[in-house]
Amino acid sequence: MEHENPLVGMQWGIDIYQYIKMCHTLGENHFIGINGPAGIGKGKLIKQISKAIGREFISIDYPDFDGNTSFPDTYGDKNNALFYIENTAVKNGMYPNTVSRFIKALNMTGDLSGAIFVFSSNAILGTNTALNAEFRVFLYGCLSMQEKVLYAKTIIEKCQKRWNLENVHLPDNTIEILIKHYTKEAGINYLSVLIRNLYEVIYYENKYEKDKNIAITNKMIFNMLGSGCYVFDEQIKKRCLQGVGMAWTKWGGTLLPIEVAITRGQGNIDFSGNIGSLMKESVQVVFTYLKVNCSKWKIPSNYFYKHDFHINIYEQEISKDGVSAGLTFFVKLLCTIRNMKFQQPIAFSGEVSLEGRVLRIGGLKEKLCTIQEHGIKKVVLPKQSWPEYQLIPVELRNSLSVSFIDDLKELEKIILQEMGKSGYGRESLC
Prior knowledge:
single chain; 430 residues; alpha/beta; five-stranded parallel β-sheet; five-stranded mixed β-sheet; 13 helices; 17 strands; 34% helix; 18% strand; globular; Ribsml_uS5_D2-typ_fold_subgr; hydrolase; protease; ATP binding
């Protein structure tokens, strides 16, 4: 008997389940793409769905697959199988060679007219690229803090029953410590391992009293697991009162704190922080826009020709690239030039055009999840990202105050509201 929700406590991935279930019912050959960060549990999700619809689950690591040879015939009923092809490549929002090579191999084998093929990638689709029209592609975004805590509780319950430790509890705030300091993933794979390790250590080392309720503390975690593997900067938002950016990584979202130093000079722009070519181009667009529109933003017309600018982004060993930081660069540069600060941290993300338009971004859920984890409440996004925003879980949306803009001119009202008595007070910016 099929389960209406085979995802065992997960509310994410339901759309993927419903689509694969429809493909199963139709009984035809189908190709599906699923893109999302590492650690999100894409393979686990597809395996659960395969079990729920009664298909054999066959996992293939694409780099080990030779598309010039016939398809492996060592499996059982391939016609009624769900093939999960891992580590496929996405370029410009499409699977260029992956599908063609795979189909070529399929043509050399027996009947697979009823099989379902799911291609998986740890990637994000480009902001303005069309999906491959050959098949449906799903974005499988990272999990919010609430979603991770919810899933962690299902693992805790299993561990309590397995080792008869119903009296040993893992509070929500301690689960958050595990997430922030001991995992670096968008999903729950490693978090599940850590929770099992905790309960296993408690059981085998008798770190509990059977007749007494015990709450696992941060100190207990440190003693059993050691210090956290990752630094979570709790104070970063206090140093980002001129705006902070958001970035997508294969582990999920991260903050993008930008530093700008201005000195007397001749208009040179220096970069540090391992910034890629696309991000440098977005900076150039912002500078050109401000040079053309300097009077509108009350900046002296010769300012950019009498000063040098140094732009730096933290963690220089990590490569950073993409155009969605353009809006953050604009706000940071404007605030630095005019010596303005906000009363609270605000996150920005959006591509900026030479005409001052603010264009849509990718990886929206990952970016919103990271500012939620850092306790940032306000965010400014492109209006073009509104449809994708409506797909974000309501709990995450309710925890944030989001403003949508279509043009840089719309920033004036937002900036003035957030400046309060700092900087230039309540005077007009433009």
